[in-house]
Amino acid sequence: MRRTLFETDHELFRGAVREFVEREVTPNVDKWEADGIVDKAMFRQAGRAGLLGMAVPEEHGGGGVDDFRFNVVIGEELMRAGAFASGVCITLHNDVVLPYFLELATEEQKARWLPGLASGELMSAIAMTEPGAGSDLAGIAASAIRDGGAYVVNGSKTFITNGINSDLIVAAVKTDPAARHAGMSLIVIEEGMEGFTRGRNLEKIGLHAQDTAELFFDDVRVPAENLLGEEGRGFAHLMGNLPQERLSLAAGSIAHAQTAFDWALEYVKERSAFGRPIGGFQTIRHAMAEMRTELDIAQTYVDSRVTALNAGELTAEEAAKAKWWVTELENKVIGRCLQMFGGWGYMEEYPIARAFRDARVQTIYGGTNEVMKEIIGRSLGL
Predict the structure, then answer these.
(1) Are residues 275 and 219 both part of a single domain?
(2) Which of 24, 214, 245, 318 is flagged as catalytic?
C-alpha cells in the first residue's frame, strides 16, 4: 500500500533510525531477552543519535520538532527489526511520558529535566497501575500528603514499564485520599530518593527484554517543586495524554503485525510441500490476501489519526477505536502468520514465536480493550 503520511524529512530520518537499530539494537536483542532488561547504554546512545526528545525545544537540547510522525518512524523501524521488547524503553519515553513534561512542567522544571530527557541521561517511566487499581485510575491508593515544602509519598505501584531502568517516574498519587478523581495529582519521583525502592523485575509471558517492575514508596519526601501540573488535576492531565499513548500502541501494533506478515509472506514462497511452495495453495493464498487487506485498511485509519494528532484534533474515542481494533488485529494476524510456519513457528529460534508472545499484552495495557469499547460506547450517548 502506498502511504501518504510521510514526507522526505521523515524518510531521511528513517534511514538514520534503521542504521542505529542495526548497529545498537539488533546485535543485542537475544542477550537482552535473556537478561530481562536492555543495557541502558543503548538508551543513551539513542539520545546521542537524536532519537529521543524530538519535540523538546532546541534550547533544552531537543530537536524542536513537534511532529508525531517521527515517533511513528522509530516504532516502525524497531518492529521491522524484530526488536519490539528492546525498543519499548524508547517508545514509552518519547510517546507516553515526555508529553507530560512538555505540557505540564514549569520553566524551572523544564530547565532541570528536559535536557536529560532529550540526551538519554534521564530515562522516564509513568506509574499509574497499583496492585488494587488498574483501569479504574480513580481507585489508586498511593498518597502524597503535603508537609511543609515537600510531599510525603506512601504506597506502591506495579507493572511499571521501565521500572528498573528509569531515572524519573511520573507517579499518579492521591494528594487528597478522601476524594476520587479530584484528589489525584502527578508527582515526579527521582532515582535515589530516600524511601523509594524498586521490587523485582516481573517475569512476563512476553516482552522479556523490557523491564517491568514493582515500585514502593515508604515516607518518600518529594520536594513540592516536583509536582507536575496542578494539584488535584492529575486525573485530567492523564486523560489529556492518554489518547496519544493509545495511538502510539496502535501504530506499534500495525507495524508489528506488518512485520510478521512480511516474514510469513517470504516463508510461504520458500517453504515447499507436496512438490510446490505452500503459498500456492488456495487456503494459504486466501489467508494472506485477507491479512493484506485488513492490514492496509487498519494502516489507513492509524495514519489518518496520526495526522489528526498533529493537528490537535485527535479525540479520545478515535484513539480508543484505533487501540482496540488494531491490537486485536495484531494478535489475529500474528497468530495466523505463526500457523504458516507450522512447527517451526513454535520454535524460539524463529522471530515469529517471540512476536506471538509479545503481542498479547497490547490488548491489556494502555487501558484494556474492554475499557476502549466503553469509551467509544459512551461517546455515542449510551
Answers:
(1) no
(2) 245
